[in-house]
Each structure stands twice: as structure tokens, then as C-alpha cells.
Amino acid sequence: AEAAAEQLRLYRRDPDGWRGCRSTGEVAVSWRPSSEFAGNLYKGEGILPASPHNVWECIKPVAGGLRTKWDQNVKDFEVIEAISDTVSVCRTTTPSACMRIISPREFVDVVVMKQYEDGTMLSAATNVEHPLCPPQPNFVRGFNYPCGCFCIPVPG
Questions:
Q1: Closest Cα partner for 42 from 55, 56, 33, 31?
Q2: Which of 15, 66, 77, 111 has the smallest count of CB within 10 Å of its CB?
Q3: Domain extents for the chain?
Q4: Does the reported pTM lie above 0.85?
């Protein structure tokens, strides 16, 4: 979990190579080639007219959190094992897509939540295997490279 958090911190600090691919008035999506796997990294950025605390409440990875209510790509989120107050092993499921051509997925990740001195909040995760969460029938087991969300306070 700490390695995933450090990798996200490095992505954030390195502005090189990001290329815009989509943008609305609210969100800008960029990509760049990954140095870890044969594919691309993607990041979405936007400024929300809300306090950092309220935004964090919507995105933080906790059982019973708000993410399953607003994110149509997250069907369920459960904590398999709480390692500490800030680190846990979690299972996230996604619904089928494209008229059920794409099967539902399940992801098992170790997740860390951090808050920095400047008020920035981070959730970082990466794939892990856990004996209490073997692959489930009717789901394809997905694999997450280091990923996560930053919630960064801005003036005003």
C-alpha cells in the first residue's frame, strides 16, 4: 500500500509526457505511456465547488461509503481485512457492461488512506491476493496496478 502511495506521489510530481485526450467544462482527462506495463496511465482532474472534506466523503474507499451511490462503475465495496486505521484489504465489484458483453469484475486491493500537512488527502491501492477472498463465481478477477485519488484543497 505504501509503495502504491509513493508511485501515485511520483506520478503527481512528474508533469512530463501527459497528453490531453478529453475535456469538458468540469473534467480534463490525460494519458501517458506506463513504465510498469504495456499500456497507458490515465488521470482525470477537476475542481469541485465543495469543501475538501465533502469531496473526500464522496470518494474515500470505505465500506458503506458514498462511492457506490454515485459511481455507476462501482457496484459494491467491502473491507476484507482492516490492517490498521489507514490500511485495509478491500474487494470492489463492478457491474457488467455493454449489454452484458463485458462480465462483472472483482478487484482485491490493499488500500491506504493518507492526509498530508497541506490538507491533501490520498487513497492509493494496488492488487493483492488474500486468503479470505478467493475468486468468486460469475466475476472476472481484475488486476490493479498502483492507482488512487488525490483530493487537493485549492484556495477559495
A1: 31
A2: 15
A3: 1-151
A4: yes
